[in-house]
Each structure stands twice: as C-alpha cells, then as structure tokens.
Amino acid sequence: MFDRVFVNATGADGQSLNLAIRDGHFISLATERPETGRAEVVDLQGHLVLPGFVDGHIHLDKSFLGDRWRPHRVAATLRERLADEKAALASAAPIAQRADALIRQVASFGTMAMRSHVDVDATTGLTHLHAVMEAREKWRGLMDIELVAFPQAGVVSCPGTADLLDAAAREGADVVGGIDPTTLDGDADGQLDIVFGIAQKRGVKIDIHLHEAGAQGIEQLHRIAARTRAAGLEGRVSVSHAYALGDVSADEVARIADALAAAGVSIMTNAPGDRAFPPILQLRAAGVRVFSGNDNIQDAWWPYGNGDMLQRAMLLGYRSGFYTDEELLVALDMATEAGAAVIGKRDYGLKVGNEASFVVVKAPNAAAAVAAAPAGRVIVRRGQFWGDAPRMQFEPPEAVPAASGLHG
Amino acid sequence: MFDRVFVNATGADGQSLNLAIRDGHFISLATERPETGRAEVVDLQGHLVLPGFVDGHIHLDKSFLGDRWRPHRVAATLRERLADEKAALASAAPIAQRADALIRQVASFGTMAMRSHVDVDATTGLTHLHAVMEAREKWRGLMDIELVAFPQAGVVSCPGTADLLDAAAREGADVVGGIDPTTLDGDADGQLDIVFGIAQKRGVKIDIHLHEAGAQGIEQLHRIAARTRAAGLEGRVSVSHAYALGDVSADEVARIADALAAAGVSIMTNAPGDRAFPPILQLRAAGVRVFSGNDNIQDAWWPYGNGDMLQRAMLLGYRSGFYTDEELLVALDMATEAGAAVIGKRDYGLKVGNEASFVVVKAPNAAAAVAAAPAGRVIVRRGQFWGDAPRMQFEPPEAVPAASGLHG
C-alpha cells in the first residue's frame, strides 16, 4: 500500500495520471485513480507533472545573482575578459553566498541536479571549489551537485594549474575540466595529456569547454574522441559548447558524430542566441548523447539567464526550429533525462521505484510546456511539497469589461 | 495635491522613485518621497516600475490559447500551411473567445496596447475582424487594440480581397495590411497600388508582412519607401519581419536604412529563433524606428510564445547579442516606447500628466529586467491595481538545509 497519492495530474502525453507514493518513492503511476484507502489524497487539479530538471552546465561561482547588478563590460580579448571577471568577483559577495542564492533560484524552477563548473587556476587555487562545496553541502538532499574543476585560464599556459586540477579531483571535484586546448593553451596534446591523465588516475569524468571554431574545432573533437577510446573512458567524457559542430557541413558533422557516438562522448549545448551551435537532431540520430545547461547566468560573461531549465528547453527548440511535439520533447529530454544520464543521477524520473520528486506546471502536455515554458511551478520532493504552501493558482486575473476590475 | 502615492519604487535607472497620482494620472515622479499628507500611500517594496508594454505585432484571431493543444503539423508549402490553418481554426473555439483568452494573458504580463493583424480573405470575409472587434470592445479601457486588415492569402492572387480590405478599413480596421507582393501575389505594383490606395482613401495606416529574402526583399523595401514618400504617408507605414535586412551586407543595409528613415517607414521584428532578421542597432543608428511584437503565439504557424513582451525584449537582446545596459534598454524601448509611437498611443509612459499605468517587476533596474525577464508582475492601471490583490512576493522559497523545508 501507499501512504500518499497525487490524483488528477496530467502526464507528459497529456493523459490522466495518478501517482501513488510510499516512503518517498513511486509505487505506481497510472491513468486510473487507485483505491486510496487510508492514504492521504492530494489533488493536482489537472496540472502537468514533469521529472525534475537537470542543469548539465552551470557556473555556481560566477553568477552575480544574490549580489548587486553589474552592467556588462565590453572586453576586447579573452585575457581582458578574464581579468575583468577576476576584479568583479573580488569585490562581489562571497562565493558561497552567491552560489546559495543561485541554487535557491534554480531549485524554485524545479531543477534537482546540476553539473557546476568551478574555476581552478593559479591565483584562485581551490578557493572557489571549497566555497561551492560549502553551498553543495547546505543543499544536500534537495540538489545533487556534480562539480567540475574548470581551468578557465588554461592548463599548460597557466603554470600550476595541472597540479591544482589533480588536487581538486582528490578533494571533491567529480569531473576534471579542460578548455580550448589549441587556441587557449597552444598545445592540444599537452592539455589533453594532463586532463586525461587526471581522469585515469583519480577515476573522475571529463568535461571540456570547446569554443574552437570550424575545422580546428572538429579536429579537436576527433582528438578527444580518439583519446576517450584509447583511455577506456567511453561514456565518461563530455564536450561543452562544441560550436564547431554548428560551423561545418552536414557531411562533416556526420563523420565526427560517428566518432563521438563510438567513443560515448556527449555534447552539451545551451543554444546560444547569436552564434551557430551543434545540430541537435543530427547528432542524436547518429547516437550522440546531447544534453543542456544554462551556462552563464547574470555574470561577467553575459547578463542573461534566470536558471530555469524549462525556459532553456524552450530556447533550445526556438533556436533549433523545433516545432512538432516530437521535436519539443527532444528539447525536454536534454533538460531532464539526458543530463541525468551524464551526471549519473540514480533513482531519477517518473517511474515506479524511483524517488517521488517532480515538478507541477500548468500545461496540457509536455510538448506544450516546452513551447510556452510557463513560469509558475510547484515542486514535490520525495512526495512532499518544497517551499511555501503550494499555490496551484496559475491563472491570470479574470477578464473584466471596461475599467472595472481595477481596485485599490 | 494628489490622492495616492506609490512610494519606495525603483526607476529604470535603478534610482529610488516615488509616483504621485491624482485622478488616474501622474502628477509627480521623484526620487524623494513627497509629503504624503492625506494621500493614500502604497509601498512598492523597492521593486522596479516599467511603462506598460506594447505588442506591435500579434494575431488575435490565430492563437489556440484558450482552446485545446494542437500539435504542430509540417506543411510542405505556404498554400498547404494556409489550408491547414483554415481547417484548424474551423474546428477551434470561437475567435472572440480565443482572442479574449489571449488578451487576458498578455494583460497579465503588463501589455497595455497592441497592434493585431486579423485575417481578411475571400472565404473568411470580415468574420475574423468582427470577432476580434467584439473582444476589443470587451477590453476597452484596459487594452488599446489597433487592428490591421491582413490579407494572409494574398491580395491580387485572392480575388475579392481588395474590396474586403477596403470594407475592413471602413468598418473598424485602423491599418491596411499587405504581404509579400512579389512572391505571394507575383505582382508587386498590383498589390501596392491596392494597399496604398486604400490607405489614402480611408486615412488608415499601412503594415506589410515581408518575408521576401535577400535582394528581392530589399528591392521591395525600396519600392515601399518610395511609394510612402510619393503618397505623403511618412510615419504611417510599417514593414513587419523584413527578413531581407538580415540577409544582406552592412553596406546594402545602410542604403535601404537611409531610404526607410527618409520615408518614415518603421520596421517590426520579433527576433525569430532560427533565421536571420534585421540588424536592430544599425537601423536605429540610421534613424529607422524599430519596434517589436510577439507575432504568432501557439497557433498553426508555430507552437512558441506566451505573449510576454518583457520576455520578447529578452529574446530580442539574446538573438542580437545585446550585452551592455545600453543595448538591453534598446530591446526594452522596442517593447514599449517605439511600439507606442507606431500605434500612436497617447498619454503613454512614466511622465507627469500621463495615465498612471505601469508594471511592477522584481529587478534592480530596467536593463536587468530585460536580461532576466522575471515572470512575476503586478499591474497598475490609472493608479489602481488590476487583478487580484497584489502579491509582491516574488521570492523563491527560503534556502533550507538538507531535507527539512519539505512538508505535507
């Protein structure tokens, strides 16, 4: 038997759904309302339930959210941007405080797991990592946080970083990062030797930021795929952004997609607004896992982002020309299941036996939820509401004739 | 003296703002809190106030909002899409009902004026126009609605449409529309003769949908600019979409921008997700008025859109690479002042003497509001709240350690 049942919900396909729960886990999900007996009954009023969102790429140490507004500053070079960012973060509120504010905000949208990159370089050392680990500890049980030791300033070109990445992997980072091995470090094999070496030595995963464009970027992806197979790290390596995949012909994408699929290298895109990005459907058709994340949120890099992965799914579709329900569900998969698989989140999703955690949204089905990305959410974790008493009043004010309906 | 004062607000620039109101109009806007005397005092709790949004391009007769979800259907040709749309709308809820639902939703986001295109063709006649006029009447006083008689199926190529456009202008349409004179009608001069003829005869404005690409589209813009000057219609002609401006070189844009500016032809873009669109800053720098609207909202053309013009401003910036505060404010201008000027909305904006209508948002300044597009809104019309008792609780739930904070 179950001790609680959420009735009158709507499932992803738009059909009726009733979710029975015992000890914080699903024991049935059915279109028919079960005999409720002595179980507590909660009416979801016909609203849609979605699995918790997974943000596959976020920077918890960078956002100014929870601090004052800082107008974006134009930087002429990458090095100028990095210096500007360091100066801005030095005068901002402590990282643990800002990370906490950001986690709080994304949790309120229904995100339940994330992969956060955290800057590691010769001047910051492991200070960012330790601060974000503090925030992670505070949110344990409500937010699964996988941490990437991210060499924002380069690896080979930033002396000392290699040792720091190794130390980070020893002290709590789950993933070792890399960044533009050729254009930033000028030594692709040098950087990849270090990154893959740490992954093998420490048993951590790999996630490499790759902004390199065109043929150069494609060559780098082939190199990463080959090293992944050589190291036996299939399924444990991701490349974030991989803009080059949006720059080249479909034939070239087909070749590298086969190599990525064979090596189990996954691709992360946030669907940037004003530049080309990977062709999602082609990669998926070739067997490549493609997932998503918000990336920068109101930080020194850009002013956009609210942390909502349902809005991110909308943006993925908006930018990719996804119109059909099937395509809209691809965008949702990238914000949920695909990211969960990359992070290795267990007990995840709307299936019997899994943790009874889900997001309640006003929408007739999951495709519609992606298209409109309604902002109102009610969050359920292990069968219980998170936050204030749930308000399932998602309706705008009643229509009113003329100027009545105004009041003091 | 004033009878009501909203204190402790934040203005677009992030400075303190206090808004004193008498008889529904602003009588002062000041950083200092005025002596309130016997006036009623409303505390805006430090939240930002923005002018009401203006949706410069919406289709009130097309959206399925307020009806059931209809999965997007792939159409091979424009004619197939038009046939598919007619079939879908024929089985949908009545237009007046759907238009009412859409107006209600956009009003709840803070839109206070709009230009709605309404299909006029040989089979629909003026039925859509009459239905939308019914919805317009219902919302009079809360939503200023300018109506465009829109020949979706063509003018020359759809016999009878010319007379219907003329009848529409006589019966209540404020603007006569056109569409792709060359590619849809195959007779640019034929269509423009009719459209400009009706505008001159009936004293209505012009708004032409122009999807024509590249050099052909630019040629059409030159033709429209020349006709506008010849007809003495400077300031009364708009071109919607004008995708061609995103297809050609900066030099070519510079030439046509000068012609558009000289003719007072304004350009509407909604910043589409997966195709090129007009370069906003270059056009504005040349003196062209550029405004925005949501365009299609969950209709037969595409599944996206929620009607929120603040989110649309975010998308304009996201797609255009607007990062600085100054650029973000351009996007906001396109969703407010620029559209108000096109529609000719009087008594508009946060200035002494104007109608005391505004939107309350949680953001530190207007640029930040565009970047994050927070969904929570409180709407004030002529000094009074619209809708339910205002909830200025925009905060997500408190951060909570571990799994406490969950409750039944």
Structural summary, described in words:
- Two copies of one chain form a homodimer.
- By secondary structure, the first copy, chain A, is of the alpha/beta class.
- The first copy, chain A, has two domains: 4-51 and 351-386, Urease, subunit C, domain 1, CATH 2.30.40.10; 53-343, TIM Barrel (Alpha-Beta Barrel).
- Chain A is 34% helix and 21% strand.
- Chain A contains twelve helices and 17 strands.
- The first copy, chain A, has helices at 78-90, 95-109, 127-138, 161-171, 188-202, 214-230, 250-263, 280-285, 309-320, 325-334, 337-343, 366-372; strands at 4-10, 16-22, 25-30, 40-43, 48-51, 53-58, 111-119, 144-150, 175-179, 205-210, 237-241, 265-268, 290-291, 358-361, 378-381, 384-386, 406-407.
- The first copy, chain A, has an eight-stranded parallel sheet with strand order 6-7-8-9-10-11-12-13, with helices on both faces.
- In chain A, helix 8 (280-285) links the parallel strand 12 and strand 13.
- In chain A, helix 9 crosses helix 10 (325-334) and helix 9 (309-320) packs across helix 12 (366-372).
- Chain A is globular.
- The N and C termini of chain A lie far apart (51 Å).
- The model of chain A is unreliable at 397-405 (pLDDT under 50).
- Chains A and B meet through helix 2, helix 9, helix 12, strand 16 and strand 17 of A and helix 2, helix 9, helix 12, strand 16 and strand 17 of B.
- Strand 16 (384-386) of chain A pairs antiparallel with strand 17 (406-407) of chain B, so a sheet runs across the interface.
